[in-house]
């Protein structure tokens, strides 16, 4: 058993002919919380989907727990995914099922546990995210933060070894944001899991994680501890971390000369 | 000149391959996968029963009311024509044969496509747009087996039952107008119907038609939903395509089936 749960080696990926990821190398040690950060469109969600096996790389290897994800059969991939949990950007709760049924979904699909035991387990998961009292509510009756917490309870239903978080802080109020952040840490410790957080929420992520990978234009430009990220001299990273408007990341999308465009008629 | 013609032909061919042949190939592969993953729909029959409820039971009102009015109109129009030839007692035959051979399967199919087909497409399309299908995949549950196949079989099973109810209600409507309102002899109405309608030639062929329409509409509905772009416009376009394509498919298939079943009869 290697000390790294996730290993991404020299991965390249393209949508149609547009290259999204270029020669990515990344490791995630067991038990750690690692952030993949970068501007929107830099390829971090694509990288998360490659790790989850939802996409296959053009070249290179993605290994999870020693298994090459992109070479697994469908059955092997599904077996591996039973040991993974993923929190989607907006929760992705099943809208025709209550909070309780959402959390119980995987238990009913993958185990033969009796219904009373499933009930107890689902309530325990909801209790862990503070929403046991909302077990009977439908997703349409939950606030954004509550929906994200129910989705978190659902993703830990089978005690996963690896948790993948896709923009877990997007669109949350400050209290919900803090709650989700603390839950990520607590659940990682309680489950003995490893977590990968894809985010561009710098302040929250740097307080939370053990290690950071910074991506720009499909490449890993920098990696290090949160302290090293804060002190990094890389101009684009500094601009990203401190939210500077002026820097190597241009405000304007590439376009023809302004005057030339206006006078084109 | 020659170059322009070649370019035009090339563009037309490319459009044909991209828009039609590719889509048809994808739809056929999708149907094959749906059939291959149908085990869950029957092992866990409650999933299919649930879809029969949504596609079938919830379509009952529109099917029964439409059937009643179509039968009543047939009674009025049929009586008007038959009375000219002094054979108004044959009204029961005209109403029943029109319904079980043609109008029952076809009109019920068109109503089913509008009511249930569009709902199935919209539901699957929205599940895709809100990442519920991706979440299911990440939870090691195949959405084709869990979401698509039960809806497909729910539609296939519901359609012949709805067509039968449509025809029965239509016959009742014809009876109300012909016998109760106009005064056609009740004994002639029922006895001529009984002697003229053949179980194998008329009833069974009508059932076969409705099963074929059920397969076509359900296939189109689940495929359009699954292939819909995950945007508001994408889902809306897919829903419209389901109704249009299903309606055209029903009418075209009806011609082919009628030509095969009733030639020389």
Describe the overall structure.
The complex is a heterodimer of chains A (265) and B (265). With 265 residues, chain A is of the alpha/beta class. Helix content of chain A is 37%, strand content 25%. In chain A, the strands form 2 sheets. Chain A has a 6-stranded mixed sheet with strand order 6-7-8-3-9-10, sandwiched between helices. A 4-stranded antiparallel sheet of chain A has the order 2-1-4-5, with helices on one face. The radius of gyration of chain A is 20 Å and the shape is globular. Chain A starts with a strand and ends with a helix. With 265 residues, chain B is mainly α. Chain B has one domain. Chain B is built from 10 helices and no strands. Chain B has helices at residues 2-36, 39-43, 45-55, 60-84, 91-129, 132-138, 143-182, 186-196, 199-227, 232-262. Chain B is globular and about 65 Å long. The model of chain B has no long low-confidence stretch (mean pLDDT 93). The interface between A and B is medium-sized, with 21 and 14 residues.
Task: Describe the global form of chain A.
Answer: globular
* DSSP summary, beta strand count of chain A: 10
Low-pLDDT runs of chain B: none
The mean pLDDT of chain A is 88
Residue stretches of chain A low in confidence (pLDDT < 50, at least 5 long) are none
Distance between the termini of chain B: 55 Å
Q: Biggest β-sheet of chain B: count, sense, barrel?
A: none
Q: Count of DSSP helices of chain A?
A: 10
- Please state how the strands of the largest beta sheet of chain A are arranged side by side: 6-7-8-3-9-10
* Major sheet characteristics of chain A: 6 strands, mixed
Number of domains of chain B: 1
What structural category characterises the helix and strand content of chain B? Answer: mainly alpha
Order of helices and strands of chain B: HHHHHHHHHH
Taking the alpha carbons of the first and last residues of chain A, their distance comes to 66 Å
Q: Percent helix among the residues of chain A?
A: 25-40%
Biggest protein-protein contact in the assembly: A-B, 21 and 14 residues
In angstroms, what is the radius of gyration of chain B? 22 Å
Mean pLDDT of chain B: 93
User: What is the subunit arrangement here?
Assistant: heterodimer
Question: What integer value in Å does the Rg of chain A equal?
Answer: 20 Å
Question: What string, H for helix and E for strand, traces the elements of chain A in order?
Answer: EEEHEEHEHHHEHEHEEHHH
């Amino acid at each position: 058993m290697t000390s790294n749960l996730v290993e991404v080696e020299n991965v390249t990926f393209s949508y149609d002919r547009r290259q999204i990821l270029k020669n990515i190398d990344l490791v995630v040690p067991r038990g750690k919380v690692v952030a993949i950060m970068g501007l929107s469109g830099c390829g971090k969600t694509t990288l998360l989907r490659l790790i989850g096996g939802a996409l296959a790389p053009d070249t290179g290897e993605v290994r999870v727990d020693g298994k090459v994800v992109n070479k697994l059969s469908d059955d092997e991939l599904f077996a591996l995914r039973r040991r993974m949990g993923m929190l989607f950007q907006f929760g992705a709760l099943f809208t025709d099922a209550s909070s309780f049924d959402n959390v119980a979904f995987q238990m009913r699909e993958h185990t033969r546990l009796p219904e009373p035991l499933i009930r107890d387990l689902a309530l325990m998961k909801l209790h862990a995210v503070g929403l046991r009292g909302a077990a009977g509510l439908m997703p349409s009756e939950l606030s954004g933060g509550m929906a994200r917490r129910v989705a978190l309870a659902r993703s830990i239903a089978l005690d996963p070894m690896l948790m993948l978080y896709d923009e877990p802080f997007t669109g949350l109020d400050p209290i919900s944001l803090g709650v989700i952040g603390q839950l990520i840490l607590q659940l990682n410790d309680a489950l003995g899991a490893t977590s990968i957080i894809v985010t561009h929420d710098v302040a929250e992520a740097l307080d939370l994680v053990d290690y950071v990978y910074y991506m720009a234009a499909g490449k890993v430009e920098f990696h290090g501890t949160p302290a090293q990220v804060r002190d990094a001299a890389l101009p684009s990273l500094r601009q990203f971390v401190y939210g500077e408007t002026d820097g190597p990341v241009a405000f304007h999308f590439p376009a023809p000369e302004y005057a030339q465009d206006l006078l084109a008629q | 000149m020659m170059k322009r013609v070649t370019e035009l032909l090339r563009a037309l061919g490319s459009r044909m391959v991209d828009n039609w042949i590719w889509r048809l190939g994808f739809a056929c592969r999708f149907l094959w996968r749906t059939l291959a993953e149908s085990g869950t729909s029957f092992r866990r029959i409650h999933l299919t029963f649930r879809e029969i409820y949504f596609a079938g039971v919830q379509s009952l009102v529109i099917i029964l009311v439409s059937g009643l009015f179509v039968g009543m109109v047939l009674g009025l129009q049929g009586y008007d024509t038959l009375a000219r030839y002094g054979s108004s007692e044959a009204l029961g035959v005209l109403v029943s044969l029109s319904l079980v051979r043609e109008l029952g399967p076809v009109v019920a199919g068109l109503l089913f496509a509008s009511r249930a087909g569009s709902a199935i497409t919209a539901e699957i399309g929205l599940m895709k747009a809100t990442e519920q299908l991706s979440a299911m995949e990440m939870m090691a549950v195949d959405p084709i087996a869990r979401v698509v196949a039960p809806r497909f079989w729910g539609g296939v099973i519901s359609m012949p039952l709805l067509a039968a109810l449509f025809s029965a209600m239509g016959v009742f409507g014809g009876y109300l107008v012909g016998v109760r309102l106009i005064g056609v002899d009740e004994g002639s109405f029922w006895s001529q119907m009984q002697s003229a309608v053949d179980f194998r030639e008329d009833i069974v062929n009508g059932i076969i038609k409705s099963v074929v329409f059920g397969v076509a509409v359900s296939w189109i509905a689940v495929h359009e939903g699954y292939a819909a772009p995950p945007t508001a416009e994408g889902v809306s376009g897919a829903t419209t395509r389901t109704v249009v394509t299903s309606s055209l498919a029903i009418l075209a298939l009806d011609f082919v089936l009628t030509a095969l079943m009733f030639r020389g009869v």
